[in-house]
Amino acid sequence: MGYKFSNNNYFINPYTFVEGEETKKYEGMAKRGGNTGVFTCRIYPKTPILIPDPFDNSKFRNDDSSNDSSDDNKSEHYAYKFLHIGIGENTKPIIPGSSIRGPLRNMYETLTDSCYATAKPNQYITARPKKAFEPGLIKKIGNNWELHQAKRYKFQIYEYFKELGKPTDPNFSTMSYEDISKEYGKQVAFNLHTKKVNVNGKDITQYYATDIGNEKAEKSGYYYIGEYISNKKYESIFFEQNKIDKITPNIIKQAFDALKDTLKVYRDEKVNQKFVKSIGKWNADQHGGYANVDLEAFERNGGVLPIWYKEVNGKYYFSLASIGRFKYYTPIDSILKKKNKMPCADLKKLCKACSLFGMVGNEEGLGSSIRITDAIFEGNISDSIKEYNLTELRTPHPSYLPFYAKTDNYLSGYDDSKCNIRGRKFYWNFKPDYNKLNNLPEDKVDTKMCGINKGSFTFKVYFENISDEQLAELATLLCLGENDKDGKRCYKLGHGKPLGFGSAKILVENIQIRDFKSKEHKYIIKSCANLENDIKDWDLFSDNKFDVPLTDIYNSLDNISKVLDFELNSNEDEVKYPNVINKSNIPEIDLKDNDLSSAQWFSQNWMFGKKDDKPTNTLPNYKDEDQSLKSVEFRKD
Questions:
Q1: Does the first or last residue of the chain, that is N or C, have fewer Cβ atoms within 10 Å of its Cβ?
Q2: What is the pTM of this model?
Q3: Element (H, E) at 253
Q4: Residue burial 483-498, b: 16+ Cβ < 10 Å; e: rest
């Protein structure tokens, strides 16, 4: 059995990134303009919009991936009604204003090269290596830190072999996991046993431990106890070897602090979805968060700690497994600072998005100049609303460099000075594969949500004291430069975007601008209706003072028009997550759960142990004519 890239089957990844240019921050942007009024807008769904009501749901299935009856290890799956207000016949589906404001701001930031307003300081990324780490020992005596190379000696675990249904080898030690699980880092005596194994025609010497704990044993090392994974057989003893002299105590301490942060990630239920506080049975879908590793106690009391390490361009990285997680030293905010893209913090220098939508700095803030109401549904509810099955959606994986980063140095990754993030994430517009979703086996349905694919939603955008330039940009932003119900430039709203849901067209139906007549002490409301498809033809913008701002934002829209185009990806079969196709002639029901998972595509694309550490494919640039990537085939040959 094996995997290979297909020559006949392709897909388009559901998302892409738009990088943009260096953020421009202007002086005097906090000053208010003279335009106050309201846009009346309408949302037309192109594909079903899913806005779940968190208070109107029902559980339809329990998962018990752990084979354990413990409530902590069960995953519950819910069906959600569409968010609504009112009761009975007066029920009205709504889209919260916040669900509209977010996409509008993100689009405006992109079009105007504004800052990344949601970026936070000290956001670090943890990742798994593509080459195995080396075994090592950290020694701490008082305030002195040392790193030593180590040799790994394996021994058999009785429970692991029992789980596999295989006999143990009597020539070297077998121990019970229950007896040694809490012995991490403790010193133990043992003897050496070697065994030659033929791998790809080469004889490889394997090193094992025997006579563990025997007072007459000739060697002494330190227990290393890892997490359980599929087909696991052994745990290890690390035997101390040469001290690494070129690494300073400060560098060791820095790497150790990064290891502490990595351990927190393992123990964070929101990040490590496999984390359980107690493991009842051997299951590779559970992770105990290295419960028996106490880094705080080691730092406080000193001693010897078995770890795994690697050195890349003078930087040292520590991990708790040979291919376990490690932490990059460079935070995302340091990368964003290269192009001045960190959130605005000074009212004297603001980007365009912060000037219009507002910002909160360290000591001062600026209120938003616009307010967006909830969007209220208009249409036949019973004819427009329907329940849809959703598969499990992938969480963002910025650690996967071939998709999320721009770099030529995959060994250093985000710590390479030339590495950059790809930009803001955008989901392609395309139609969901309704047939596939409707016919999902029940155990493959992650969530059910009611969606609306007909009718429309109306909402208002109030603006106060904005400049002529901001007025022109806001009008263009709302309809994306084409004020046409059948226009092809669409937003993505609500849930299920990677599956094709949420494509929507926003239309501006009316503009009212309030004009204060000081001599008459009254307000005059100027109303603009019957608006043309082309904003440049609106009477409101007939004055040539609007020519430059309209031209600039139109040019920005043309630059990303491919990402917004609903008609671009007409074949729903093409847009999907990286996938594996079964070419083994074995019925899928007889395959293991992981055999056809998208994780196999990512692994095949950026293969572990590859000499140059380069991926086979990187995510295409959003402007590329060809966005397709090859699927992976699971084959017998």
A1: C
A2: 0.90
A3: helix 249-266
A4: beeebbbbbbbbbbbb
Place of tokens 């033929």: 198
CA 543 remoteness from chain centre: 45
Euclidean distance between CA atoms 270 and 258, whole angstroms: 19
Helix (H/G/I), strand (E/B), else coil: 575 = strand
CA pseudo-torsion sign 418, 424, 429, 431: positive
Please tell me the distance from the alpha carbon of residue 492 to that of residue 479, in angstroms, as a whole number: 13
Number of neighbours of residue 335 by Cβ within 10 angstroms: 19
Q: What's the CA gap between 456 and 43, in Å, rounded?
A: 5
Query: Token pair 């084409």 is at which residue?
Result: 482
- pLDDT tens-digit readout, 201-230: 888 999 999 999 999 999 999 999 999 888
- Yes or no: say if 241 and 149 are a contact pair by the CB < 8 Å rule: yes
Task: Give the three-state DSSP class for 197.
Answer: strand
Tell which residue, 374, 373, 371, 372, has the closest CA to residue 84.
Answer: 374
Task: Report yes or no: 369 and 463 within 8 Å, Cβ to Cβ.
Answer: yes
How crowded is residue 510: how many other Cβ atoms within 10 Å of its Cβ?
15
User: Helices in 484-523 by DSSP H: which ranges?
Assistant: none
What DSSP string describes 457-493?
A: EEEEEEEEEE-HHHHHHHHHHHHTT---TT-SB-EE-
Q: Could you tell me if residue 280 is left (phi over 0), alpha (psi between -120 and 50 degrees) or otherwise beta? A: alpha
Sign of CA dihedral 552, 556, 559, 562: negative
Residue pLDDT, tens place only, 532-574 = 888 888 988 988 889 999 999 999 999 999 999 998 887 656 9
Report how far residue 553's alpha carbon sits from residue 223's, in angstroms, rounded to the nearest whole number.
Answer: 62
16 has which bridge partners? 426
Question: pLDDT tens for residues 341-366?
Answer: 999 988 989 999 999 999 998 788 99
299-308, 421-430, 493-502, 596-605: range with lowest mean pLDDT:
596-605
Residue 170 has pLDDT above 70, yes or no: yes
**Joined tokens for residue 366:** 């600026």
Average pLDDT over every residue of 134-156: 97
Tell me the β-bridge partners of 224: 236
Q: How far apart are CA 209 and CA 173, in angstroms?
A: 6
Q: Give, in order, the Cα–Cα distances in Å from 481 to each of 487, 488, 525, 552.
A: 9, 10, 25, 12
Torsion region of 67: left, alpha or beta (phi above 0 gives left; psi -120 to 50 gives alpha): left
Whether pLDDT at 68 is above 50: no
